[in-house]
Amino acid sequence: MPKDEGPRLLSGGNPQIPKGHGDEVVQSYIAAMPGWKRGIGERLDALVDEVVPDAHKAVKWNNPLYGIEDRVWFFTYRCFTKYVKVAFFSTEPLDPLPPIDAADPNTRYLHIFEDDQLDEAQLRDWISQAAASPGWLE
């Protein structure tokens, strides 16, 4: 019998995790994040837990999702080769805006590279703002 080698990594190193709901499946995603990216995932998850302790969690489309209720999402992240892409979904503009725009005006991105220092105060503020005005209904 072949040894279970865990989740497969997709292009760019993003873990391929079966979709599901709850903290357990998000923790499986984080555990499968490669190298230094795992620490970023652990910290992002902890920040959401601090700011929105009753957040709904899921993994869909190989991304962890955080919402104010099932199917109403405000936050996600995904592994790419050189960075972790963080997305904020909010129907109200975040202030200040995260640095990278998207085709959807309700979405803004932040890229976190290996040597970046996380501005946790700013991340908490963006998470709080996005949770107060969630921008993506599945």
How is the topology of this model organized?
Blueprint: E1 20-21, H1 23-32, H2 37-51, E2 56-60, E3 63-69, E4 72-79, E5 83-89, E6 100-101, E7 107-113, H3 120-132, E8 136-137
Antiparallel strand pairs: 1-2, 2-3, 3-4, 4-5, 4-8, 5-7, 6-7
Summary tags:
alpha+beta
Outline the structure in words.
With 138 residues, the chain is of the alpha+beta class. The chain is 28% helix and 29% strand. It is built from 3 helices and 8 strands, in the order βααββββββαβ. The chain has helices at 23-32, 37-51, 120-132, and strands at residues 20-21, 56-60, 63-69, 72-79, 83-89, 100-101, 107-113, 136-137. Strands 1, 2, 3, 4, 5, 6, 7 and 8 form an 8-stranded antiparallel beta sheet that branches. A hairpin with a 2-residue loop joins strand 2 (56-60) and strand 3 (63-69). Helix 1 (23-32) runs antiparallel to helix 2 (37-51) and helix 2 crosses helix 3 (120-132). The radius of gyration is 14 Å and the shape is globular. The mean pLDDT is 92.
Oligomer: single chain
- Principal-axis shape equals globular
Given helix and strand content, the structural type is alpha+beta
Give the proportion of residues in helices: 25-40%
Instruction: Give the integer mean of the pLDDT values.
Output: 92
Calculate the terminal CA-CA distance, rounded to whole Å.
39 Å
Binned strand content: 25-35%
Radius of gyration: 14 Å
